[in-house]
C-alpha cells in the first residue's frame, strides 16, 4: 500500500532529518482486515525511526503531544489507533514538544 | 540531648521534650538529600544518637525509606512519633476532654495514626493513674472502618476475615479499651442497609466521569465518618493522611481547577465539618510509615482495593516519579501549598469548656493559631464541601431555565463538581438529585451556606423583574 | 472493498463528519477546549476571534502603541506574529508591530532559526530587530559554553535573554512586549512553581500582563490558547516555523511536568485551563511581595541587588570565574536545596528550561 508519511515539528530529526517519506507498506494484518493506524505505527517504529523512539511512541500509540493527521484530518475524529488507511492516503505526525 | 549520650536503645522518644523533636522535623521538611554533606559516609551511624547503625544504608535512602537512611531504628521511631506529637500539640488537635475517632482503612498510614494515638492515650492514662488530683481526664479513642464492599466487591470470606483482623488489632490496642465501628458506606442513607446500598450504586452510576466517580465516593466516605462520629459523641476525627497523600491532593486539586479551596484541605486542622478533622501525620512520608509498620510489625490489612484511575491515578504516578527523582519533592509540594492562605476554619474553634481549654493550653504552642481576619461566612459546595470563590458563584442566568430543586442544586456546586460529578443532562440531573443522601441535600438547602441565601435573592430578583416585564 | 463505494471521499471512519459550526464542510480537527469537531475555515475564525477577545477583554493593547513580538522562529511566536498582524489589520488596533529576536550566538541552531524570523519579516511585513549576546555582553553562547562547559549554560542563557529582550524593546522604543507563551506553557509553569516551592512566582505566573511597574510590560495573548491548536493552525496555514532543539540543551523539553500535562490533556483536555484557573485562584497573601526593585549600579537594569544577575554572571565570565552567581537563588533561602539541584544540571522536572521563552 502506497502511503505518504510526513514528520514535522522536530520529529523529522528521528528519521534522518527527512520530512516526507513515500512508502510502500506491505503489511498484511489479519486476512481481509484493513490496515489501521495501530499497524502503521508499529511499522513506522521499526522501519523509519532511527533514533530515540521514545520521542515518538509511548506504549502502542504516539507519545502524548504528537499530533496525527490522516488525510489532513485530526485522527481524534477518525478513531485514533482504529483509523483505517487506504491506498495513497497521507499521514502527518507533528510534535508539539519542540521550543516555541 | 538525651539521645546523644548513647542511651538510645530504650525508646528515647518517651523522655524527649518537644523542643528536641522539632529539630529532625525541620530537617525532614527542608528535604535533606540522602547524600548531603552532613551524612557520615564512612560508617552508617545514626545521625542522632551516633551509636547505632542506620536502618538502611544512606545510599538507599533515596530509594524510598525516607529517614531510614539517617537514623537507627529507635531514633527513627522517636523522630516519627515526634513529628506526630508536635503536630498534635502545636495545633491543639486533642484535648483531654476529647473523644477522638480514628479513621482506619487497614493501610499503613491509618495504622500508624491509630498506633500513635493509642500510645499517646496510653501515656495519658498512666499519668492519670499516677497523679494525685486526677484533674486531667484521659481523652477517649474509637476506631472507624467504612466498608465499601458495596462499591468494590471483594470475596466475602476474605472480607469477613479482614474485619476480624481489624477487630483484633483494635482490641489489642488496650488499655484503654477502644470501640470499633464498622459501617457500610451505604449507611449514609438513613434507611435500611440494602436499600442504601442500591441507591448508592445508582448514584455512582449516574456519574459518567471516572475521576468524578472516585471523588464522589471520597466525599461520601467523609460523610459516613462524620455520621459515625456524630452519632457516637466523638469530638475529633483523626485521618492518617501523610505528606505523600497530601502532595498528591495538592497536584490533583490544581489539575481539577480547585486552586481556591486547596488551602482548606491541607492544614493540620479542618473544622469546617461538624466534627473537626485533624491530620497529625501531615509531616510524615508514606515510606516512613511503611517502614515503621515493618520495624514494629504493625499489622496492616488490605481490606479495600480502591482503583485509582483517571486523573487521580495519573497524578499519583506523577508524584511518585518526582519523589524518586528527588526524595524531598513531596515535602516541597506540601510546603508550597502550606504557604497559601488558610481559611478561618483551619484551626480548632475556641471552646467555652474552661477546664479542657486550660488543660490543653498548657501544652499548646500558640504560633500556629494566629487568628485570621474575620471574614464573612464562607459558602460551601454541597457535594465536596469546599469553600466557594465568590467569582465562581453561579451566574443566575445559568438556572434561569431550570428552577427545579435539582437545577438549583447543580448550580450551587463548585465548578469542579459541576464538571466531573453533576450530570449535564437535565433528566439525569433530576435522577442524580433524587439519589443524593440527605446530608448533601440539606447541606445545599441549609442556611449555613450563605450561598443559598444569595441564590434565593437572585431568584427573587429574577422573578420580580420578570413580573415587571410582564405587566 | 465494497465499503469504498458507500463512503465517498476517503475510507476513514470520521471522514464523513461535518463541522458542528457551519454544518457544511468536513470537520478537520477536534478542539481540545470545547471538544467541538470543526472544519479548517471555522477553526481559523474561532481561533483568531478567541485571541481577539482575550486582547480586548484584558485590554492588552491601546491604539497607537508600539508593540514588539518576541520572535524566536518557533511555532508559538510565528503564529503570534501572523495572528497579531492579521488582527491588527482586521480590527484596527492601530498598533505598530515589530519583531524582536535575540541572537544568542549558537551556531547550527540560532542562526538557522533567525533565517526563519527573517523570512517572517518579509512574509508579514513586520520590521525586525535582532539583538545579539555578542554586542550586548561581548560573549556568544558558543564562547560561553567553550569556557564553562555544558553545565549551567542554561542559567547564563536565561538571564541574558531576559535582559536582551528588554534592551531590544528599549531600542525599538516599544510600549509593550508580546510573547508566545501558550496555555500549556502557563499550566506547566504553575506546576513547576508548586514543585519548586516558589510561591512568589506562583502568584505571578498566571498574570496575562507582567512587569507593569518595570520598563517594558510583557503580555501573553496566547494565555488561553492550546498548544495543539497553535500547531494545527501553523500546519493548516503552512506557516514557516523552525522546530529544532537547542544543541546545548538537547533534551530540555523532555520534562516530567510537560509529559504529565500532555498525559492529562489526553484524558481530560480541560485540565490545562483548570490548572491556569487554579493558578489564578490560589489564595496567596499579598504580603509575600517581590523584593524591592532598584537599578543595577553597573548597567542600570532593574535589579533587587546591587548588581543585576546578568552583570554578576558577566563579571564571572570576564574574570575567568564562571561559577560566580551560579546556584544562588535571589535572596530567597527557603528553596536553596532545590535551586542548587536544578542549577546543577538536573533538568528532569524542567522542560522549557532553555526554551526560547522565559518567564
UniProtKB/TrEMBL annotation, chain A:
Domain of life: Eukaryota
Full protein name: Ubiquitin-related modifier 1 homolog
Modified residues (1-thioglycine): 100
Keywords on record: Cytoplasm, Isopeptide bond, tRNA processing, Ubl conjugation pathway
Similarity field: Belongs to the URM1 family.
UniProt GO cellular component terms: cytosol
Pathway the protein takes part in: tRNA modification; 5-methoxycarbonylmethyl-2-thiouridine-tRNA biosynthesis
Major subcellular site: cytoplasm
Source organism phylogeny: Eukaryota, Viridiplantae, Streptophyta, Embryophyta, Tracheophyta
Post-translational modification note: C-terminal thiocarboxylation occurs in 2 steps, it is first acyl-adenylated (-COAMP) via the hesA/moeB/thiF part of the MOCS3/UBA4 homolog, then thiocarboxylated (-COSH) via the rhodanese domain of the MOCS3/UBA4 homolog.
Subcellular location: Cytoplasm
Pfam families in the record: Urm1
Record cross-link Glycyl lysine isopeptide (Gly-Lys) (interchain with K-? in acceptor proteins), residues: 100
Keyword tRNA processing part of the UniProt annotation: yes
SUPFAM superfamilies the UniProt entry points to: MoaD/ThiS
Keyword Cytoplasm carried by entry: yes
Function: Acts as a sulfur carrier required for 2-thiolation of mcm(5)S(2)U at tRNA wobble positions of cytosolic tRNA(Lys), tRNA(Glu) and tRNA(Gln). Serves as sulfur donor in tRNA 2-thiolation reaction by being thiocarboxylated (-COSH) at its C-terminus by MOCS3. The sulfur is then transferred to tRNA to form 2-thiolation of mcm(5)S(2)U. Also acts as a ubiquitin-like protein (UBL) that is covalently conjugated via an isopeptide bond to lysine residues of target proteins.
Single Gene Ontology BP annotation: tRNA wobble uridine modification
TrEMBL record, chain B:
Stated role: Plays a central role in 2-thiolation of mcm(5)S(2)U at tRNA wobble positions of tRNA(Lys), tRNA(Glu) and tRNA(Gln). May act by forming a heterodimer with NCS6/CTU1 that ligates sulfur from thiocarboxylated URM1 onto the uridine of tRNAs at wobble position.
Any one GO CC term of the record: cytosol
SUPFAM superfamilies documented for this protein: Adenine nucleotide alpha hydrolases-like
UniProt-listed HAMAP family: CTU2
Species whose genome carries this gene: Nyssa sinensis
Taxonomic lineage of the native organism: Eukaryota, Viridiplantae, Streptophyta, Embryophyta, Tracheophyta
Keyword Transport appears in the UniProt entry: no
Similarity comment: Belongs to the CTU2/NCS2 family.
Record-linked InterPro entries: CTU2, Rossmann-like_a/b/a_fold
Name the UniProt record assigns to this protein: Cytoplasmic tRNA 2-thiolation protein 2
GO MF annotation terms: nucleotidyltransferase activity; sulfurtransferase activity; tRNA binding
Pathway named in the protein's UniProt entry: tRNA modification; 5-methoxycarbonylmethyl-2-thiouridine-tRNA biosynthesis
Major site of localization recorded for this protein: cytoplasm
UniProt record, GO biological process: protein urmylation; tRNA wobble position uridine thiolation
UniProt xrefs under PANTHER family: CYTOPLASMIC TRNA 2-THIOLATION PROTEIN 2 (PTHR20882:SF14)
Keywords: Cytoplasm, tRNA processing
Subcellular localization(s) per the UniProt record: Cytoplasm
TrEMBL record, chain C:
Annotated tRNA(Ile)-lysidine/2-thiocytidine synthase N-terminal domain residues: 67-250
All residue ranges annotated as the Cytoplasmic tRNA 2-thiolation protein 1 C-terminal domain in the record: 294-324
Gene3D superfamilies (UniProt xref): HUPs
Keywords: ATP-binding, Cytoplasm, Nucleotide-binding, RNA-binding, Transferase, tRNA processing, tRNA-binding
GO MF term (any one): tRNA binding
Origin: domain of life: Eukaryota
Matches recorded under SUPFAM superfamilies: Adenine nucleotide alpha hydrolases-like (SSF52402)
CDD domains: CTU1-like
Pathway(s) per entry: tRNA modification; 5-methoxycarbonylmethyl-2-thiouridine-tRNA biosynthesis
Compartment(s): Cytoplasm
A Pfam family reported for this protein in Swiss-Prot or TrEMBL: zn-ribbon_14
GO biological process, one term: protein urmylation
Main location: cytoplasm
EC number: 2.7.7.-
Chain ranges passing through the membrane: none
Assigned protein family: Belongs to the TtcA family. CTU1/NCS6/ATPBD3 subfamily.
Protein name (record): Cytoplasmic tRNA 2-thiolation protein 1
Organism: Nyssa sinensis
Amino acid at each position: 500500500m502506497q502511503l505518504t508519511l510526513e514528520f514535522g515539528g522536530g520529529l523529522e530529526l528521528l528519521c534522518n532529518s527527512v520530512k516526507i517519506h513515500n512508502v510502500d507498506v506491505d503489511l498484511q494484518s489479519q486476512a481481509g482486515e484493513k490496515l489501521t493506524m495501530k499497524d502503521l505505527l508499529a511499522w513506522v517504529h521499526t522501519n523509519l525511526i532511527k533514533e530515540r523512539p521514545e520521542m515518538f511512541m509511548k506504549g502502542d500509540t504516539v507519545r502524548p503531544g504528537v499530533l496525527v493527521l490522516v488525510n489532513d484530518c485530526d485522527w481524534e475524529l477518525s478513531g485514533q489507533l482504529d483509523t483505517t488507511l487506504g491506498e495513497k492516503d497521507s499521514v502527518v505526525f507533528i510534535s508539539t514538544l519542540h521550543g516555541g | 540531648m538525651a539521645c546523644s549520650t548513647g542511651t538510645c536503645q530504650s525508646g528515647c522518644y518517651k523522655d524527649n521534650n518537644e523542643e528536641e523533636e522539632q529539630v529532625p522535623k525541620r530537617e525532614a521538611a527542608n528535604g535533606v538529600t540522602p547524600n548531603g554533606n552532613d551524612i557520615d559516609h564512612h560508617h552508617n551511624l545514626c545521625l542522632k544518637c551516633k551509636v547505632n547503625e542506620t536502618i538502611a544504608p544512606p545510599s538507599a535512602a533515596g530509594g524510598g525509606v525516607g529517614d531510614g537512611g539517617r537514623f537507627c531504628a529507635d531514633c527513627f521511631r522517636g523522630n516519627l512519633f515526634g513529628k506526630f506529637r508536635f503536630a498534635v500539640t502545636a495545633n491543639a488537635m486533642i484535648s483531654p476532654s476529647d473523644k477522638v475517632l480514628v479513621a482506619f482503612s487497614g493501610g499503613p498510614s491509618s495504622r500508624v495514626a491509630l498506633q500513635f494515638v493509642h500510645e499517646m492515650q496510653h501515656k495519658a492514662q498512666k499519668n492519670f493513674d499516677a497523679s494525685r488530683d486526677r484533674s486531667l481526664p484521659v481523652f477517649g479513642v474509637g476506631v472507624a472502618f467504612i466498608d465499601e464492599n458495596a462499591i468494590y466487591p471483594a470475596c466475602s470470606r476474605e472480607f469477613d476475615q479482614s474485619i476480624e483482623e481489624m477487630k483484633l488489632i483494635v482490641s489489642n490496642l488496650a488499655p484503654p479499651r477502644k470501640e470499633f465501628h464498622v459501617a457500610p458506606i451505604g449507611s449514609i442513607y438513613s434507611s435500611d442497609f440494602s436499600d442504601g446500598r442500591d441507591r448508592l450504586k445508582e448514584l455512582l452510576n449516574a456519574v459518567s466521569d471516572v475521576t468524578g466517580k472516585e471523588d464522589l465516593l471520597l466525599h461520601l466516605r467523609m460523610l459516613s465518618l462524620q455520621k459515625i462520629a456524630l452519632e457516637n459523641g466523638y469530638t475529633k476525627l483523626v485521618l492518617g493522611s501523610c505528606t505523600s497523600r497530601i502532595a498528591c491532593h495538592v497536584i490533583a486539586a490544581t489539575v481539577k481547577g480547585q486552586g481556591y479551596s486547596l488551602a482548606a484541605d491541607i492544614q493540620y486542622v479542618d473544622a469546617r465539618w461538624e466534627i473537626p478533622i485533624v491530620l497529625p501525620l501531615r509531616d510524615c512520608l508514606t515510606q516512613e510509615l511503611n517502614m515503621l509498620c515493618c520495624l514494629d510489625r504493625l499489622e496492616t490489612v488490605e481490606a479495600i482495593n480502591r482503583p485509582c484511575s483517571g486523573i487521580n491515578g495519573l497524578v499519583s504516578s506523577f508524584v511518585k516519579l518526582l519523589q524518586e527523582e528527588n526524595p524531598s519533592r513531596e515535602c516541597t509540594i506540601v510546603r508550597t501549598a502550606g504557604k497559601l492562605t488558610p481559611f478561618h476554619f483551619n484551626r480548632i474553634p475556641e471552646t467555652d469548656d474552661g477546664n479542657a481549654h486550660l488543660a490543653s493550653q498548657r501544652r499548646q504552642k500558640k504560633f500556629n493559631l494566629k487568628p485570621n481576619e474575620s471574614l464573612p461566612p464562607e459558602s460551601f459546595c454541597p457535594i465536596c464541601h469546599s469553600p466557594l470563590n465568590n467569582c465562581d458563584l453561579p451566574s443566575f442566568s445559568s438556572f434561569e431555565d431550570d428552577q427545579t430543586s435539582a437545577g438549583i442544586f447543580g448550580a450551587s456546586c463548585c465548578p469542579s463538581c459541576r464538571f466531573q460529578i453533576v450530570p449535564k443532562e437535565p433528566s439525569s440531573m433530576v435522577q442524580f438529585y433524587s439519589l443524593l443522601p440527605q446530608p448533601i441535600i440539606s447541606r445545599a438547602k441549609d442556611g449555613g451556606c450563605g450561598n443559598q441565601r444569595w441564590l434565593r435573592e437572585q431568584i427573587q430578583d429574577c422573578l420580580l423583574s420578570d413580573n415587571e416585564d410582564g405587566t | 472493498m465494497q465499503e469504498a463505494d458507500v463512503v465517498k471521499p476517503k475510507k476513514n471512519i470520521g471522514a464523513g463528519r461535518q463541522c458542528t459550526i457551519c454544518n457544511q464542510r468536513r470537520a478537520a480537527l477536534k478542539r481540545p477546549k470545547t471538544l467541538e469537531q470543526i472544519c479548517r475555515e471555522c477553526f481559523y475564525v474561532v481561533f483568531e476571534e478567541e485571541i481577539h477577545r482575550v486582547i480586548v477583554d484584558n485590554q492588552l493593547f491601546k491604539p497607537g502603541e508600539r508593540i514588539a513580538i518576541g520572535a524566536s522562529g518557533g511555532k508559538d511566536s510565528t503564529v503570534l506574529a501572523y495572528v497579531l498582524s492579521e488582527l491588527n489589520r482586521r480590527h484596527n488596533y492601530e498598533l505598530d508591530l515589530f519583531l524582536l529576536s535575540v541572537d544568542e550566538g549558537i551556531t547550527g541552531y540560532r542562526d538557522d532559526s533567525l533565517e526563519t524570523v527573517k523570512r517572517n519579516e518579509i512574509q508579514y511585513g513586520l520590521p525586525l530587530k535582532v539583538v545579539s549576546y555578542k554586542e550586548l555582553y561581548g560573549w556568544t553562547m558558543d564562547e560561553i559554553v567553550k569556557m564553562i562547559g555544558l553545565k549551567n549554560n542554561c542559567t547564563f542563557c536565561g538571564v541574558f535573554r531576559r535582559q536582551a529582550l528588554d534592551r531590544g524593546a528599549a531600542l525599538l522604543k516599544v510600549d509593550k512586549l508580546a510573547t508566545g507563551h501558550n496555555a500549556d506553557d502557563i499550566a506547566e509553569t504553575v506546576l513547576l512553581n508548586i514543585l519548586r516551592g516558589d510561591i512568589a512566582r506562583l502568584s505571578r505566573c498566571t498574570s496575562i500582563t507582567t512587569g507593569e511597574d518595570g520598563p517594558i510590560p510583557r503580555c501573553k495573548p496566547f494565555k488561553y490558547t492550546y498548544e495543539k491548536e497553535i500547531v494545527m493552525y501553523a500546519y493548516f496555514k503552512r506557516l514557516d516555523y523552525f522546530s529544532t532543539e537547542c544543541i546545548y540543551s538537547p533534551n530540555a523539553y523532555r520534562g516530567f511536568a510537560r509529559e504529565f500535562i500532555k498525559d492529562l490533556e489526553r484524558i481530560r483536555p480541560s485540565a490545562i485551563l483548570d490548572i491556569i484557573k487554579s493558578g489564578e485562584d490560589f489564595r496567596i497573601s499579598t504580603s509575600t511581595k517581590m523584593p524591592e526593585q532598584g537599578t543595577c549600579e553597573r548597567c542600570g537594569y532593574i535589579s533587587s541587588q546591587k548588581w543585576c544577575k546578568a552583570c554578576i554572571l558577566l563579571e564571572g565570565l570576564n574574570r575567568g570565574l564562571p561559577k560566580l552567581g551560579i546556584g544562588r537563588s535571589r535572596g530567597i533561602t527557603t528553596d536553596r536545596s532545590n535551586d542548587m539541584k536544578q542549577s546543577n544540571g538536573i533538568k528532569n522536572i524542567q522542560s522549557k528550561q532553555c526554551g526560547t521563552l522565559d518567564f
